[in-house]
Amino acid sequence: MTRGTRANDIAALAEGAARARRAESTASPDAMAARRAACDGLGPVVARYIEARTGDRERLSAEQLDRLDAACNDWLAVYARRLGRECDPGVPVRTAAEAVIDTHDVVAAAELLTGVDADW
Fold first, then answer.
1. Spatial distance between the Cα atoms of 51 and 64, rounded to a whole number of angstroms
2. Which of 4, 64, 68, 96 is deepest in the core (most CB within 10 A)?
3. Which range has the worst mean pLDDT, 49-58, 64-73, 84-93?
4. pTM for the structure as a whole
5. Using one digit for the tens of pLDDT, what is the confidence trace for 88-106?
6. Domain segments of the chain as ranges
7. What are the residue ranges of helices labelled H in 1-120?
């Protein structure tokens, strides 16, 4: 992946996460929406980080890493809010990636990172 493509990809992930967090400010609890936030939101952010760390020949810039961290936290906040809890976890994307690798489950990782358990 070229530097420009990667930067655009990360920017799109970060902008989508920020938009989702703003949109969720008045959302009512919905367990399936929480699951989607983890799978369809946090999952791609973590995947992009892992891809960059394991597959790309170039390191992430500080700005790119900051944007992935912000996107990670935005999606975790959306996940928690959809389960009826306010949360601003301050979790680095690296920690989220480690949790996904350890659990093999992005939803379980979101639960661990936010401290908000879902009753599926």
1. 13
2. 96
3. 49-58
4. 0.92
5. 999 999 999 999 999 999 9
6. 3-114
7. 3-23, 31-36, 43-54, 62-82, 93-103, 106-114
100/118 Cα distance (integer angstroms) = 17
Q: What would the two tokens of residue 63 be?
A: 């700005």
Whole-number Å distance between alpha carbons of 27 and 30: 8
Q: Residue 5: left if φ>0, alpha if ψ -120 to 50, beta else—which one?
A: alpha
